[in-house]
Amino acid sequence: MLTKRIIPCLDIKNGRTVKGVNFVDLRDAGDPVELAQIYSETGADELVFLDISATEERRRTLADLVLRVAEKVNIPFTVGGGISSIEDVDILLQNGADKVSINSSAVKNPQLINDLSGKFGSQCITVAIDAKQIDGEWIVHLVGGKVPTELNLFDWAKEVEERGAGEILFTSMDNDGTKDGFANKALARLSTELNIPIIASGGAGNIEHFVDTFKEGKADAALAASVFHFKEIEIKKLKQELQSNDIPVRL
Amino acid sequence: MKIVIINYGAGNIQSIKFAIQRLGYEAILSDDPEVIKAADKVIFPGVGEASSAMSKLKESGLDTLVPELKQPVLGICLGMQLMCNHTEEGDTKGLGIFDVNVVRFNHGVKVPQIGWNQIESLNSVLFNEVEEKEYIYLVHSYYAPVTKDTVGQTQYGVTYTTALQKDNFYGTQFHPEKSSVTGQKILKNFLEL
Of the candidates B15, B114, B135, which has its C-beta nearest A166's C-beta? Predict the structure, then answer.
């Protein structure tokens, strides 16, 4: 049976791992390659590297990091952050990334999704969507949740699927950093209305939250950062708990 | 031992090269027919869309070479699918090594299948020291139905083929290079054939 995936997310700035609370107040949590290796050995199903640096050298730094990760890590990983062209994706996949994740560039130029999935295949194109509720409506946001768009989450998600995305990484900005649980209602709606896998992100604080997002949120995978980086939740224990709740996991 | 990964511009080749390195071997990347023919082991990777991958293979003239190889050949993911008769993706004619047609998932499951699933009904030297129902990593929208050359199966809405073997040809729908310790064992078994 296909299992539910547990995905630690490593936010990368200038080659180092960081994690913010509500995307500000960054804290340093170590060397990405070392951390990736530890996660691959302790039961993570997949890794996401999200580059949040804004330097001129970011492209090369990220491509180098991908190569170093691929050399050491024997589980799949996705790379995101500032990816906006076929050339960007080509070098990352060539260097050993399994998937890339695009976010703002897809909102600004939706055709990019068609172009990338046409060239590299849907299976390696993840579209990340950050959204929060404004007057009860889920609105897609850009720039780490700071800038609202005109887009409704569910409409955008459907468009993204139709344009050829292989997977959606949905981060609720209302939940991110709160440690109060994932946005399960919105997740369940996405999972029901779409036919591609949905990764839940934003709000993980304890093991029960993961159980809920797989059961109530119908998520295919759950992503978290600080609870893993600061060892508040051990992945092995998390998976044992999921299994005892009849959620299929790789143990 | 000379291990060659066929480099025809359609694959996550770096990851396979690194996985082989982690097992203590070195692989070279090549699209040179002479180099490929002279190898002890050949790996035929593939990621992306079937018809464009097949076009690239034809451009380099490797579509006629691969089926004639005599040494062990391992097709991975799309590489495995291209070794079949035909794939529904882009209505693409394959190399015809495995007598089976690849079709799209259509059984009330999410497509693509992304993640870790179990492999069972194991029946190949590739699976020495691999237990039934170990986990392997898969990312795909199309699959090969169970056929006489099937040596490993997985369930996703339907029971389908995740490993094929015929003569010197082997194929895995999953990515051994990304399938943690289980994948390492399978890749090692292939390299040590």
Answer: B114
Exposure of B73 in the CB half-sphere (CA atoms within 13 A): 24
Predicted-complex ipTM score: 0.93
Query: Which amino acids of B are annotated catalytic?
Result: 77, 175, 177
CB B115 to CB A220 under 8 A? yes
Residues of A with Cβ-Cβ distance to B48 under 8 angstroms: 119-121, 124
CB atoms within 10 A of CB B142: 21
Q: Within 13 Å and on the Cβ side, how many CA atoms surround A29?
A: 21
Phi, psi of A110 (to 5 degrees): -55, -30
Q: Taking CA atoms, what residue in B is nearest to A166?
A: B112
Report d(CA A190, CA A54) in Å as an integer.
31
Task: Tell me the pLDDT tens digit for each residue of B25-65.
Answer: 999 999 999 999 999 999 999 877 899 899 999 998 999 99
A11 catalytically annotated: yes
- What distance in Å separates the CA atoms of residue B70 and residue B67, rounded to the nearest whole number? 9
Per the structure block, which two tokens stand in for A130?
A: 């950050």
Chain B residues whose CB is inside 8 A of the A221 CB are 115
Cite the beta strand spans of B18-65 per DSSP E: 27-30, 41-44
Residues of A in contact with B18 (CB under 8 A): 70-72, 96
- How many CB atoms within 10 Å of residue A245? 15
Residue A37 three-state SS: helix
